[in-house]
Structure formats: structure tokens, C-alpha cells
User: Fold these one by one.
Assistant:
Number 1:
Amino acid sequence: MTVPTITLNTGAEIPQLGLGTWPLDDAQVADAVEAAASLGYRHIDTATRYGNEAGVGEGIRRTGIPREQFFVTTKLDGEFQGDDKAIGGLEAALDRMGFDYVDLLLMHWPLPGRDLYVDTWRTFEKLHADGRARAIGVSNFRVEHLERLLAETDVVPAVNQIQLNPHVTRPAQREYGEAHGIVTESWSPLGGDGAGVLREPVVAQLAERVGRTPAQVVLRWHVQQGLVVIPKSANPDRMRDNLAIFDFALSAEDMDALATLSQGPDAGVDSNVSGH
Ligand code: A2P
């Protein structure tokens, strides 16, 4: 299965589907990355906060596939905001992974109460300019945070990675992204544990009708809207399932049926923009 790519504002291509890795530890993630790569995954999403960057690097090395064939994202959390702390943060992350660059470096949260995200973005711009972060972006940003970056800094984020699934559809962030060339990436695209998206009768009925699994229907809903998705699974059968979504389409009626699942534009999203 070949995964389509989306062109970032840097000109780089991001595979539209990647492997999410939270909450796997180093040993679990190394096995998961190896299994995923053998199925065709070439996009891996990690974060310093997940504590598994070393395992991601290890898993990629174990595949024997050249590093440059992978698209690797990591994220720096609040500890690395302000005072150019992101430079040491990325250097330490690269040391753990055993790489000399990441394809995408994200600011994990805006943490607006600290008001350091604009300053931190200027450090991200330096890391982008020196090539250690081939692209830079943000995560869990709301429109007002994006507006400030665009008004006060030079580089437009390549990506905004946000919690997004049929229950929580985030239209404001997506529209802003489309207007400014910022790719929206969905974290917990299946709704994560317990959210019940996969158990929705609408999803189950659609899955049955199109002869696909509930997870495939939900992931197809994302990619058909131009979103990048990073479903997490440590189970190779599910990884295979999640990858096999580029050979069928949902009809406009199917998409309308899934739209009825929305619980509100930002339903259940932490107002302090925390996330995982
Ligand atoms: P597991 O790792 O045991 O496969 P999200 O990425 O939306 O947060 O979802 C991750 C959760 O969904 C994990 O609990 C994962 O469990 C489960 N999951 C991943 N892929 C599938 C699938 N194809 N079918 C059912 N559950 C899945």
C-alpha cells in the first residue's frame, strides 16, 4: 500500500498517514516501528514528552531502510519554551534518536498562560534555518495562537497537529490552516481509548456496508478531507488495517452521515490546550 503525501509549505512531502507512538515505551516502540515499516509505514510521530525517542531511532535503524526514507516528527514541551531552550531540547532529542535532523519539529503546546510561544517560535526558526528541523510546526494551537505567530514572526508553521476526530471536528483551526497553507494533522484520529468513536452505530453500519472496519472508515473520513493522520497501534494487524484506506472512498452521503457525530467544534478539548 503506497501512502499519498501532502506537500508542506517547505516543499517537503509528508506521508498522509503515520504511526502514532504514545504511550509506547522505548522497547515497545522499537518493535512497533519495525513492524510498521515492514508494512509500508514511513512516517513516525513521537515527542520528547512520550519518553520513547530512543526507541523510535532504534526501530528505524533495525529496519535497515535509509533514514532519509522516513518522515520523523518530534515535539518539545513546555520545559523547552523561552530562552532558546529549544536548541538544547532538539539536540538532546536528536542524540536520543541517533539522528542529525528531524523532518518536523513541533511545539507541543502553546501554554498561553506563560506567553512564551512566540519567543519559542523564533528559536524554532533558528533550528529550521540551520537544517536540524527540516520543517517546523505547532501542536494544540488555537486560531488566536496561530494569528500571533503569523503577525509577529517570519516562518509560517508547516503543520498544526490537533485533537481531531468525528466527535471533535475543529473547523476554525482547519479553515485557518487552509487559508494560510498550514497542514492540519489529527492526533488520536480514532478518538483514543474510551471515546467511543469506533463504537458509534453510524460508523459500524457504514463499515458493514462498505466492507471495511470501523477504524478504516474513520481514518478514511480524515484523509478524504486532506488531513494527515497518525493512528497509534502496537498491534501489526491493526497497523495493516489502518494503512489500507487508500483503495476505497466514502460517498458524500457517507461523509454527511459521519458529520452527524460531531459533538461540537472543540468538544472535550482541554481549554488550557494541554493534550497528551
Ligand atoms: P492498540 O494499540 O491496542 O491497537 P488513537 O490513535 O486515535 O489515539 O487510537 C489509539 C487507540 O486505538 C489504541 O487504543 C489502539 O489500540 C486502538 N486502535 C488502533 N488501531 C485500531 C484499529 N484498527 N481497530 C481498533 N482499535 C484500534
Note: The radius of gyration is 18 Å.
Number 2:
Amino acid sequence: MSARVIIVVLGKQGAGKGTQCKRLAQHLGIPHVSTGDILRAAVRDATPTGLEVSSILHAGQLVSDDIVNRLVKDRFNDTDARGGALLDGFPRTASQAEALDEILGEDGVKICINLDVPNSLVAERLSSRRVCQECGAIYRDTDIEAISGTCSNCGGDVIQRDDDLPEAILKRLEAYERDTAPLLSFYDGRGLLVRVDGDQDPQEVTAEILDVLSERGIT
Ligand code: ADP
């Protein structure tokens, strides 16, 4: 793989960004960097940033650009991110996209995958989603891990995220339309945007993305 492969994965809440990034990280050997996971871990561990953002996350609103830009910049300094990263949940606003360009310097974003799903699927997926508080593994409410409350991957607690409750879901979808949807044209204008149908089996979605990456000579 050539130097620093930065892959931005965009898509509405529930489009499957987390699931796909975890799978792709294993295939590509670059880390899955999810600003949502980083922020939730900060809240769980009651770090100063966690205490600052806790009520914002709970309400399903966006954390300030300054905070997330700094978290991402710091994460890129970790050794495992030298070869690149799969960005999930960042950038989420035009100003974050500009900050990302600045952070990356010459090694710009290589590709932006838009995981496209119909709105009707989103609410259903989010309300049945359960996550492991420790490792971030994603389950459905009918999975044994969700029923037992224990992650089969790491033994952590499997819970429903606060912001996967109906009122917060609505707020997050509104914020997506307002703040994040415009990023599609930002990356499209640079010839970096590829649409992938997110309404297929997770394996099929991964295979399609891997095909795109290899067709474009990224992997
Ligand atoms: P989703 O995309 O499903 O809302 P995430 O796990 O990506 O979930 O994010 C959860 C929450 O973390 C968001 O609702 C928001 O409060 C905060 N967050 C994550 N990424 C960002 C970001 N790039 N900018 C601002 N807030 C963010």
C-alpha cells in the first residue's frame, strides 16, 4: 500500500459506516478512526473532554469543530495511523473537511465512500442497534449478545446508545442533512466520491468497496 491512505466514509447514521470500517480495517491493515467512538470512550472514562461533551452527545447534537479536529489530529500521530486510516464520522461539516486537508497536508484524502441507504431503513436499523461499550462491536436487538448484554468479542457490556432513542435519532438525521450532506458535493467536485449501495449484506458492501479501492489503484 502506498504512503498514507486516508479513506473517508460518509453516510447517514445507520448506513453501516462502523460495520464497514471495522471490516475494511482488517482487510487493509489501517485503523478505523471513529470520532463517535473516541468521544463515547472519553465520556465513559470521564476525561476532561468527556465531561465537556457528555450532554451534547446525549442530545444527539454536534460537538464543536475545535474539539473533534484536535482529537483527529492527535489520533493521526499514533504509530498505527502512519499508513493511513478509515475515517468514520469525520469530517462531518465543511469546516471539518477543510481542517482535515490542513492536518493531512500533501497526503490528501484518497477517496470518499458514500454509503447510501434509504431513509426508511435508517430508523429501523438505529432503533434495533446495540453496541459493546468496550470494543464498539455492533449487534441487533435480536442477537444473543444484545439479549444477554455481554459482548462475544470482548466480554464488555452491550447496551443501547442514548442517541439511538427516537428523539435523538431525529435530531441526528436533521443535522446530517444540514451539515454533512453538503460534503458529498465537496468530495464529488474533486473527483473523489464513490457511491456504494449500503442496502446489501455487509459482506457484499465490503466486497464492493474493496473492488473500488483496487480499481482506483488505492490498495
Ligand atoms: P452517528 O453518526 O450514528 O450519529 P457517531 O458515533 O459517528 O454516530 O457519533 C455520535 C455522536 O458523537 C454525534 O451525534 C456527535 O454528538 C458526536 N460526533 C461524532 N463525530 C463528530 C464530528 N465529526 N463532529 C461533531 N460531533 C461529532
Note: The beta strands are 5-10, 32-34, 84-88, 111-116, 129-132, 138-140, 158-159, 193-197.
Number 3:
Amino acid sequence: MSEFKPQIFSGIQPTGNLHLGNYLGALRKFVALQEQMDCIYCVVDMHSLTAQLVHEDLKEQTRAITAAYLASGIDPVKHIVFNQSKVREHAELAWVFNCVARVGWMNRMTQFKDKAGKDRENASLGLLAYPSLMAADILLYRATHVPVGDDQKQHLELTRDIAMKFNLDFEGKIRNSGTGIDITVGDQPVHAFFPMVEPLIEGPAPRVMSLKDGTKKMSKSDPSDLSRINLTDDADTVARKIRKAKTDPDALPSEIEGLKGRAEADNLVGIFAALSDRAKADVLAEFGGQQFSQFKPALADLAVSVLAPITEEMRRLNDDPGHIDAVLKDGGERAGVIAEKTMKDVHEIVGLL
Ligand code: TYM
């Protein structure tokens, strides 16, 4: 029994400003994981066509996300940073996965239901097949670990379903091609071409909530800018948004259990913990018994000290699109080498001449 080589893959869509949720749910984890495994970080520009076809400035947005990757501390030399459309095999493998995945699986995706709204007949076919392209992104590199926020959990379960069905449907052909690996899934032995990816979601802020409503996810599409902290916000704006964040009148509890039923308090404590690489219990041990009027300024100082250098570096990089384009070109070429090899094997397994 052997194992797939550990490999990280993750991606962010170039639509709208990045916010604190993207930073804590994804970017900050991306940076930390660089010390542990080989990482491939992608700007998934083709995914951006699924909900909205025509974009004013898709190229600019793609560069802006790349700038955020670099400004956060991702090393594009030791690891790989590129945009999805540079490597055509993403679309090619997605097509094979469209034929592996079932329409029922796609229809069950909560993000599809949310984005398609009531008029599902009028949603693009791309929006329905979105998770199939996402599975292709990951499995093209036979990635084993995927750092994401909690909202992507269902898509990663579907990625596992696609990998498993492909492995089982083609088991004999995988064996004949000599490209598979014996693994166990649960207690079932499988001769696998694609690994069963592990989502990396844990941490104190897997789902950062809106600053205006602790029951709603912080998101790019919320009409209220006060609901989120954008990575482009200046220090005064960050501090003002935290000051205005919704809270309840009680003091902070000293124990985790005391956060139950206090969504806004839980969210702010989680943000503090994630920004300082501490556990929520540890933050409460320090701030328990204090009022929000004391906690909020401490949180604002912390947020500014972490985010301001990133924002400044993003600005600097945004003025240097030539550098960003060179990073993406180099990353695309290196990703392309891996992708080409996987697709060659997939052609062999599936029987595409
Ligand atoms: P996207 O672009 O919507 O979000 C990028 C990352 O940010 C995380 N995130 C959050 N985390 C915590 N709290 C929040 N409020 C919050 N909002 C967003 C997301 O979970 C994500 O990790 N489908 C993906 C992009 C994608 C992808 C992939 C990811 C395409 N292919 C392959 C991983 C692997 C998406 O739309 O993320």
C-alpha cells in the first residue's frame, strides 16, 4: 500500500474585492502551508464566467488576486502561482468530469441553489457544472490537501465523489495503464488514479461572518460595505468598521461555552484568534469580563497591524503589472508540465486516442 505525494492546491475567484473572510479562510492558511508541503495556488479566472459572463476588468481582477497572494507572503518561486486559463488542461479534465458527475449531484449544491436563485432554468450551464471544474483544478495536480473556508466543504466532498467514481469506473484501465496507486478509502481497498482530497478547514475562523449580522457569511456580494473588511481598506476604515460592528450589550465571557447564542461576539473573538494565531479559549482567557468598548480597539489595532502591510504591498504590486504577468506566465508554464502529464494518463485510461 502506498500513498499519493502530499500536494496542496487551492484557488480564489477574481471577482470583487478580497475581504477578511478570504484572508482568514484561505490566504493566511496558504501562506502557513508553504512550510509543510509543495503548494499550487491558482487564480480561477474561468470560474468567474459562471455567474456573470461579461466582466469590465477580468484581467485586472486576476492581477489583483495575484498581487494579494504575493503580498500575503506566498513565494511564487518555491511554489506555483498561476491563473487557471493559462493551463488548458483544466477545461479538458473538467469535460471528462462532466461525464463522470451526475446532474443530481450538481443540483444538490447549496452554492448553486443560492446563486441560481428561483430561476434555475435560466442559470448558465457553467454555473451548474462549476464544481466539476473545481474538481478538475484540484485533481489535475493529484492534490491531496485543499485549504479553504467552510463554505467550500460541500464542493470538496463532491470532488471526492468524482475522484472515487472515476477510480472505480476505470479501475481495470487504471491498473492496465500502470499509473494507479493502491489506497484504502474507509476500509475499502481501491486502485486509484486520483487521491481522496482532504479539506483543510479547521482553525478559529473557518467561516468569518458579516460585521453587521453574525448569522450571515462575510461576502463580496453583501450590499453593505460595512459588513466586511476589504483587503484594500485603509487603516482608518478598518478601525471604523470594527468600531461599528454589531455586538450585544454583555461583557465577553471567560469560557468558550459563553459564546453560545452570541453569534456576533463569537465572530469577533474568532477573528481576533485567527489574526493572532491563537485559540479562541486563549483570547477569552485574556479578554473575558471586558466590554466590547475595550475589546474592539484591541481588535482594530491587531487587524491593522496584520492587514496594513499587506494592503500596502498590494498597492505597490498593482502598480507593477509587468511583474505580476511574469509570475503568472512562469507559474502557468510549471503547472502546465504537471497538467500535461496527468492529462496524458487520463487519455490513456479513458481511451482517448
Ligand atoms: P471564493 O473565491 O469564493 O473564495 C476564496 C476562498 O475564501 C474562502 N472564503 C471564506 N472563508 C471564511 N469566511 C468567509 N466568509 C469566506 N468567504 C470566502 C473560501 O472558502 C475560499 O477558500 N470555489 C472556490 C474557488 C475554487 C477553488 C478551486 C478552491 C475554484 N477551484 C479549487 C479550492 C480548490 C470559490 O469560489 O472561492
Note: The longest strand covers residues 7-12.
Number 4:
Amino acid sequence: MLFKPKQTMLFTLLSLFAFSFSNPILAQKKAIPPLFIWDDKPAKNWMTEAYPIGNGRIGGMIFGGVNQEHIQFNDNTLWTGDENDRGMYQAFGDLFIDFDQKDQNFTAYKRQLNLADATHSISYLQNGVNYNREYFCSFPDKVMVLKLTANQKKAYSATIRLKNSHQGNITVNGNTIQFVGKLPNGVSYQATALVKIENGSSHSVKDDDGEKLKIDNADAITVIFTGATNYSNKREQNWKGEEPAPKIDAILKHASTKSYSTLLKNHIQDYQALFNRLTITLGADDIKNNNLSTYQRLINYKKSPDLGLESLIFQYGRYLLISSSRPGGLPANLQGLWNETNTPPWGSDYHSNINIQMNYWLAEPTNLSECQIPYLDYINSMREVSAIATRKQYPNTRGWTVKTENNIFGGMSFLWNTPGSAWYAQALWEHYAFTKDKDYLKNFAYPIIKEICEFWDDHLKRRPDGTLVSPLGWSPEHGPTEDGVTHDQQIVYDLFTNYIEAAVILGIDKDYKTHIADLKAHLLKPKIGKWGQLQEWETDRDDPKDQHRHISHLFGLHPGREISTIKTPELAKAARVTLTARGDESTGWSMAWKMNFWARLQDGNHAYKILQNFITPVGGSGTDYNKGGGIYSNLFCAHPPFQIDGNFGYTAGISEMLLQSQAGELQFLPALPDKWSTGSIKGLKARGNFEITNLEWKDGKIIKLSIKSLFGEDCIVRSPNTLKSKGITENKSGKDFTYSFKTQVGKVYDFK
Ligand code: FUC
């Protein structure tokens, strides 16, 4: 970290005001970007209506009220708990701007989140004045910035205040408002808002809520906000790093030397460097509904098609990942990083039996590889503490695994989830499979994958006939605890497969690789049961009426690669029977997983049916564990309540419908629904480090395809229709056409 030593806050802040913030930069926006989420009224409800912004560490939920602005904010390192107590992810605080103007009448109101540049804006007309607000949360400058302007001078008289979610004093010093505090576990925190006004005056006022900043007759207001804690992901430092005050000092000093337009430009450049890597168009009418509020589009969706909404929600998943998961920080938790309460659902933690994994399914295929790094770092940072806990529970093992519920200090709760770490290992492998970064594989991923293999090497139970079973597993989250549950077996199979490939690529540990290959060969295999289903347990007891949201025993179909329609058609058929029985409606993340399953079963129309169920407007906040999932008017996924894995899983599901590469070939349009007969996507990634710079299709047939080889790997293309490319020969494979060719780094291979 590059934070400078502590200076006095007052000195730092006073010096900042020598610099001014220039004009809003609305000019930099595209005229009618098609990636708006918007509403014609302020948000009343945090979970269902407010819009999120974030920079991977801090984030805000914006209400956009006319007489009162309310931004609830977070820092994703603010947690209770420790190594022994899972604790919970905490709310941080709120920023309020109470406008003196209390006129209830206003017109032309609009608040919108622009996914194209990650800015949030609000505009309205009140008493003849046009008011504009623009907000963003910058990763490069580490601040949230608000700019309030109007088309008349002296338009702003208001009181700006902060609220600490854990009580405690709010102080005003010059034009800064801040609070500091410490949680009982020693995590100290601070939030600071630096306020700059154009003309007018400001002074501090005090009441029962603490000190506030009163502004009179300003032409414009700029707020630069940041928060921080002393959390560090280093166990050897007792999970503590630099104190928040010097960090915040340095951040604000740095940010305030820049003009508003520079801050905005930095932000947009940084964001678009990630976001613009991929564009998608589903159908010809993708922008026709943009003049309807997002909520209205959701309501209309069940009556009339809106392919633009489907692709908007796809891109929203990418927006949310960029906003909640950036290198150097923590991974996206159950709510990304947005959380308004100190007792959020499931602690807003890291659940290891589907949820954190699902959060990252989109990262590599949708060209956001860097955004997966926090998850990989998280896995690495938990090794030592997890090993200590694992040793207590499973004394005769090496390596480590985890319980179901996890925090940021290695504290865990609920049941042991023995295949949890092996599922994490899949992410470590996939990052390599997509990037082909051998240094990363050798120095970072391989040692972790290997030690997780060692856990299973010691933990697997050998039966007299030589079969290996996972002892006393539990198929999340129902049925008996017993040996050889399919979920565990498939995840261990996946782990061993990845380990063996890694050892071969690195040319190391030959004996151990042979040993793991022998274990893999003896693993109890998936079984097909009496009603044709893929058995969830070794005993054929699956209930055809069971509609449980977890479909844990299809791990081998997705995200694993043990089951496929091409290589294991019988198992794929059984998976289809199981999936059909589990039904098409469920909780949010469960539907997202089903989209991915149906895509892997190459059934685009069924995947699409689930996608349509996913886009069901949900209003309430209840929790029905088995159904009721959908989407709120801010497009957050409803478990219910809000859980972000569904958003991420939905985006991953669409990528799986358009391209799959888990089987050693690039299969294009494997699950294209009839409703998407025409479309294009530019920027998908495939394993082998291929970038699909263009994929266009018409009437269900690929018409243009360009593949950029970024590593020089041999490539096999599988297409549903015949294609032509100079010098590349075609083969027929079942109903598909395949093309095998060698590639050179940096070269683009065109097909049409
Ligand atoms: C698992 C799921 C629940 C929920 C929770 C966070 O326990 O079974 O549905 O997603 O994680």
C-alpha cells in the first residue's frame, strides 16, 4: 500500500481548498447510452429501489430524494468477528444532504445509473430551477465523489451530515465532516467527507445528532468522500494494517488536488478499460424500451419481449462485479459490498457451498479476469487459519478445508463443508485455464491446489473393493450425512482433474501426480437411479417431487466438466431428468444456476425459460427458501431477500449459452434460444486465452466469428453451422462442424 505517513488532518484539508473543481462533465457522456437503469421517482427502499455504486472497497446506495439526499455507504472490510467467531459484515454509515428547500412540488425528475460509465445522475426541476447531481465511486482515486449543480446561482442551501452505523460522535472541522470508531474486535474505522462549495458560505452547526455542515446560497457543491478501516488480509499481522486516519488523509489529499473533471475522467477511463471489453446485442430491438423506466420494463416484461432488458441485466452483472471486486481488496460477499444493516441476512458473509463460487463464474468468460483476483487472494489468505481449524476437526489430514459460513479473518460457522476448499481450487485453476499465466500457476495456484489434494488424499475413505468415498458428507443442503454423496465425489474428481493437468503443465511432482491419478480412478462414480435421474446419494432414494433449490449433485455438469452431452451422454440425460424434476422456479441464485445447467445441456430454449423466470419483478423482502426468486426494480437479484450471486450467475448463464470452452474446444452458440435468433457479442473469453473479438449470428446461424489468440494455443472451433476460413479445414462431428488449427500469439482468425 502506498499510503503516506500521517499528517494532521486539518493542515491537509485546509490546503486542499486552494484547488477547485471545475464543471460537471456531462459532455463526456454518450448522447443516449443504451445501458441505463433509471426511474422517474426517488428511491424509498434500500434493497429494492436504491442504486449501487462502488469501487471494490467502498460503495454507496443512492436514494436520490429531492428534499433530502441519502447515500448509505459501506467499506467491505468492516466486520465483527475474528478467527473464532464468524461475526457479520457491518453497515458503515449514511451521508445525508437535507435541502432547505422543502417544496414538495418538482417535475422532470430522473435518477439513473449509467452502466456505460459507472456514473449515477439525478435531475429535476423545482421552483423554476434545474438541479443536477452526479455521483461516482472511483477505484484509481479511492473516493466517492458527488457534484451538485444547478442552472441558477445560489441554488443550494442545505445541511450535510454523516451518520455512524455504530453510534459515535460526528465532528466537523472546517469543511470536513467525519466520524471515527472501533468495533469490539479491534477493527477501527473512519469515514470522512470533504465538502467544497462554489460561492455561498458554510459553517458548522450542532444538535443531538452531532455536528453538521450548514451551507447557504452556494452555486454548486462537491463532496469527496472516503472511508477506511485498519483491516489487512494478513494473518501474521493479526489481520491489522495501517490505521484509517493516515490512509484517509493521503487519499483525500491526493484526490483533492485534482479537478472534478479529472477525477471523473480517471474514473471513467479505469472503469471502461474493464467494462468496454465486452458488448452484447440480443435481437434488433435492444434499445427500443430505453425510454421506459426500468421498473416499467420489468412489469412489461411478462407481457411483451424486451431483449434489451435481458442484455442490460447481463451487463449489470459485469457492472456489479467491477464495482465490488477489485485487485487488492476483498471478494464480493453475499451482497457484493452493499449492506445497510449490522445484522444482514446470513451475515452477508462468504458462503462456501455455492454462493462465493457463483459470484465469480462470470469473471473469466466475460473478460473481467482481474476482478477475480480478490477471490483468489482471499483463498490464499485463509490457508493458515483454515488449516489450524481443519486439523482440530480432522486430525489425520494435511491441507485444509472450510465450514459453510466464512468471514474475513478465517472465522467460520455452521457445518463443516468438506468439499468447500476443493471447490475454491476450481477458481484457482480456471484463472490459469483462461489466462495461461504459468508463473501464476506455478507460484500461486499450484501449491494451494496441491495442499487441498493432500487433504483429500488423507480424508478419502477406501472401501474393501478399492473404491474411494468422501466420508460423512452432506449434499447441500438436505438429505442424510453419509459417505459418497455425489456432490463431494464430483468436486473431488474436479480437484484431481485440475491438479493432474497443472502438474503435467508444470512438469513437476510426477510421483504425486501418478498417485492422485490413481485416487481419481478409484473415486465412486455418478450413478443413474430408478427414475432415470442422476442420483444425489449413493443410495437410490431421490424423490422426484423434491424441488430443493440446491442441485448439488449436478456440479459435474456445471461448473465441473465431468458430465457433458458430447462425452457422457447417458449422464447428461440423467442430469436432464433431475433438472426437469427440480422445476423451473426457485430462489434467485438457484434459477441462475439452472440457466447454467440448461446451457451445459445445450438446451437454449429451456435455459431461456429459466432466464424469463429470473426476470420476475419481486417487491417484498421475505425469505422463502424454495421459491419467490426474481429481481427488484434496481435489478438486484432477489433470493429473496437481495443476494448478489443471482446477478452474477445470470450473467455467467448467458455467457454459457453463447460460448463454452470447458471441454477443450470453443463451442459457439451451444444453447442459443429461438428468441435470440439474431445477435452479436464481442469480447467473450475462452479457455486457452482466446478472445472472441466478434461473434455475430442471424437466424440462429453464425455469420461472422473472429478469434484472437493471446497465447498461441492450438484451437478447436465447434459451430452449429458450416463456416469458412482461409486455410482451415472443416470436419463434421455429430450435428456440428469443427475446425482445428494452430494459432500464433496476437493473430486473429476470422470465420464466416
Ligand atoms: C445457502 C443457501 C441459501 C442462501 C445462503 C446464503 O445456505 O442454501 O439459500 O443462499 O446460502
Note: The pocket of alpha-L-fucopyranose is lined by residues 334, 346, 351, 355, 477, 549-550, 587, 589, 625, 639, 643 (CB under 6 Å).
